[in-house]
Design goal:
Blueprint: E1 14-21, E2 24-31, H1 33-36, E3 42-49, H2 52-60, H3 66-81, E4 87-93, E5 97-104, H4 107-115, E6 127-131, H5 135-146
Length: 151
């Protein structure tokens, strides 16, 4: 478990955006463009909705921990998959869910890897979606949707 009282330590290969207001927080993290461009394969998005207990905790902590939770699930996915050809390209988290998107040669690489990963207690069962666009297009689209001023 991460000590959530410490400042976020973001992975160096990612850029981020954190929007905070009353009863709202949206944190997103994406792979730097120079590392994103050479990637090819299928983009698979995994959406983890919060468990009921975590929803209550998020409410009581004013959503202060959700960015830490995003980094934790990214680390767990990286540890579980450990495939050189499978890379997390985007992660976003808000009061409803945490979503992690990866690029892999085939969606089965992600599906098989996740079957061996226990779902952390703070999440409900994940929903997986494959996207028919490149990793670069996917990240650009998400950045534009989440914060049109920065994309």
């Amino acid at each position: 478990m991460t000590d959530h009282t410490k400042p976020l330590q973001l992975p160096i290969e990612y850029e981020s955006n954190d929007i905070i207001s009353i009863n709202y927080r949206h944190f997103s993290l994406w792979l730097r463009e120079d590392l994103l461009k050479p990637l090819s394969g299928v983009v698979t998005e995994i959406e983890f909705e919060w468990s009921d207990n975590t929803k209550q905790n998020n409410f009581h902590t004013h959503l202060n921990n959700i960015a830490h939770y995003a980094l934790e699930i990214m680390a767990l996915i990286n540890k579980t998959l450990r495939a050189e050809n499978c890379k997390i390209i985007y992660c976003e988290v808000n009061k409803f869910a945490c979503s992690v998107s990866l690029v892999a040669p085939l969606p089965q690489v992600v599906y098989q890897g996740l079957q061996s990963m226990p779902c952390p207690d703070r999440f409900a069962l994940p929903l997986m979606t494959n996207h028919e666009i490149s990793a670069t297009e996917f990240v650009a689209d998400r950045r534009k949707k989440c914060n049109p001023k920065t994309a």
